[in-house]
Design brief:
With 165 residues, the protein is α/β, with parallel strands linked by helices. Helices cover 20% and strands 40% of the residues. The longest helix is centred in the first third of the chain and has 9 residues, at 16-24. The N and C termini lie far apart (38 Å). It has helices spanning 16-24, 38-46, 59-64, 92-100; strands spanning 2-7, 27-30, 49-51, 68-73, 76-81, 85-86, 89-90, 105-107, 114-119, 124-129, 140-149, 152-163. The protein is built from four helices and twelve strands; from the N terminus they run βαβαβαββββαβββββ.
């Protein structure tokens, strides 16, 4: 069993509230637009980290993190990428793989809009944790946490870090 904290779109921002939730997880996953790698360095000091780079990330981040990260967590096939779209509107570069070899859990960021949708057509769970950083148009900073237990994804929680003013 693994307790996962999922975040995205930090845009160089990390704070004690995010780190409080990191400390409660077994692993942290970052779905891109990291910004300053001090963010991921802070996360890695506390917990194992899996991530991808996003469209704002520089060459240094792109050397450290892949564009796509597909792996097994327990018995769940997970695919993380930054710009992936969502059920019915997947990114064109992703759509054919989703249709021919879907993961059980597909994660992306980019939109700053928290979404959790079950894709019935492709039999997968789509998650976008919204944005944990302070840059962007979102009104509430958000993250997701959940448990992967063998082949089950359960105990999903939305974490609202703070409303932006």
């Amino acid at each position: 069993m693994k307790k996962i904290l999922l975040l995205s779109d930090t845009h160089s921002h990390i704070d004690d509230l995010i780190l409080k939730y990191v400390a409660q997880a077994d692993e942290v996953w970052h779905a891109g637009d990291i910004g300053d790698l001090a963010v991921t360095d802070s996360l890695k000091k506390l917990k194992p980290l899996r991530g991808v780079y996003g469209n704002i990330d520089d060459a240094t981040a792109r050397l450290e993190f892949p564009l796509h990260n597909r792996f097994m967590c327990e018995d769940v096939d997970v695919w993380i990428t930054h710009i992936g779209g969502y059920p019915g509107k997947y990114n064109a570069t992703i759509k054919s793989v989703i249709e021919t070899n879907p993961p059980k859990l597909f994660i992306c960021g980019h939109s700053h809009i928290l979404k959790v949708i079950f894709d019935k057509k492709n039999n997968l769970l789509h998650m976008n944790p919204g944005a944990a950083g302070k840059s962007g148009f979102h009104n509430v900073r958000t993250m997701l946490r959940f448990v992967i237990d063998k082949d089950k994804i359960k105990d999903l929680e939305i974490i609202e870090i703070e409303k932006r003013v």
